[in-house]
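Quick one:
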Amino acid sequence: MAKIHLVRHGRTVLNEQRRTQGACDSPLTRQGRLGAVMCCDYLAGAALTAAYTSPQGRAVETAEILLQAHPGLGATRLDGLREYNYGRYDGGPDGQMHAALPVDQHLPGVLAGTHPGVPGGIHARDYLADMDGALARILSDLRAQATVTTATGTDPEVLVVSHGMTLTTLVVRWLGTQAAQALVARPLANCSVTTVRVDPGAPDGAPELLAWGEDPGNQGVTFQVGDMSGLLDAVVPVPLDLSRPEGLSLPAR
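Output:
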């Protein structure tokens, strides 16, 4: 067995300004760095064997802080861990984006792979395909690690640093009802930790949710959260496609 610790990046300048942050970027604030340090302490006892991060600056900065407790371990950057691209609304006021993309329509449409995106943004099917490639890579690497760690008797643990929308979409599609119910109760805060137990030998990792959105840095969320009860009850998410691991060559057929 193995564990994957999924961490949302620390609080940023645009987070604190209540501005939409998808493809655009901004650095961690002082509060965001403090939250990342506290999250580092929270994960210090994890026996990390690998780490992955979105290539966006705020995630990279967070990963660097989190890995200070694990000297010698660097993070592999995966494009599929990038945040959703909000197109024309990126960098603008959160309220403007939420008015154009109300969560009760937008999130179900993304999960179902049907949302066309907005000008300058991304279609849901392309977003999900990139995300699946990142998860496939992580699981593929875990399978390779498992053959090594079995001999030592230690289970591998992996750090993944990404973004709020991406982690929410990934985990809800991967774990289904148990993650959807957790999301309704508690959206993912900055520097929150979601831990999933996986079986590297299973095709989809046979994921089991161990912890959802733990907030060791008390970062909270910087966006308005409405009542999400029943939001995902009728949604049928696009099944995962783990056949194309990002950055790995497919075997010849």
